[in-house]
Amino acid sequence: MRLLVVENDEALGVRLRQRLEAEHYCVDLAREGARAEELSAAHSYDLSILDLKLPALDGMEVLRHLRARPGLFPILILSDKNRADDRVRALDDGADDFLLLPCSFSELSARVRALLRRRGRGVGATLRADDLEMDRLARIVRRGGRRIELTPKEYGVLEFLMTHVGQRVTRPMILENVWNSSGELLTNIVDVYISYLRKKIDGDGTRLIRTIRGVGYELAAERMVRAAENPAESEWAGASRK
After folding, report:
1. Cα–Cα dist 31/9, whole Å
2. SS3 category, 106
3. With contact defined as beta carbons under 8 Å apart, do 52 and 79 qualify?
4. Where are the domains of the chain?
5. For residue 227, what pLDDT is reported?
6. Measuring CA to CA, which of 46, 60, 159, 165 is 20 to 30 A from 227?
7. 132-135 vs 126-129, strand pairing mode
């Protein structure tokens, strides 16, 4: 899941990104309202954490702009403004939750999970490909009932593949969505993480992660893999159903 963190305090913003990425979220960080609006126009987000004290463009104005965009996602205000009218105004203007600073990261993380659960009831909180299953809210991956432990970046790559099951995705697409980078020299890191995933996900069983020569990768259901590896068998199966 992809989060947008808009935080004027650089040190706090970096800490938030690091802690959230450790919980398997893909995080974009903006320090100014204008940058937040650029990112929200370029990407689809599952949730935003928004500071109200922003330079130039006021946080409340950013809130209204984000809320007016298509593709509604939850917005959690993280602020040290403790006046009741500030909280009421933010909630009336479209915020889904308001958390006062200072607070513990565990409480922030719990608020994020609660908002994502609420949103996830209609956006595919669980992803599946044959016996591979990803619970995006609990951030748990299982294959054949066996739990698989993944690093944050492994999880991010797999989540991107699982949201595009049966579709061919390029290395730059994965790099942009998981590493927030478009550098061509880094595309080899995608191959490294695909290798890590194959060892953990595929093991000695059916390989669900396919390499598409000259293109990139595809997470395919087992029946797709068998058809690709044995087209004659696929044609026979299709003929037998006629």
Report:
1. 7
2. helix
3. yes
4. 2-120, 126-240
5. 46
6. 159
7. antiparallel
Burial class (CB within 10 angstroms; exposed 0-12, middle 13-18, buried 19+) of 210? middle
| End-to-end C-alpha distance for the chain, whole angstroms | 42
Residue 28: φ, ψ to 5°: -105, 140
Q: Does domain 126-240 have CATH number 3.20.20.450?
A: no
Amino acid letter, residue 60:
M
Residue spans of the chain under pLDDT 70: 70-71, 120-124, 181-187, 204-205, 221-242
Class of domain 2-120: alpha beta
Residue 136 near residue 113, CB atoms below 8 Å: no
Tell me the pLDDT tens digit for each residue of 208-240.
999 998 889 999 865 554 444 554 433 333 343
Give dist(CA 136, CA 133) in Å, integer: 9
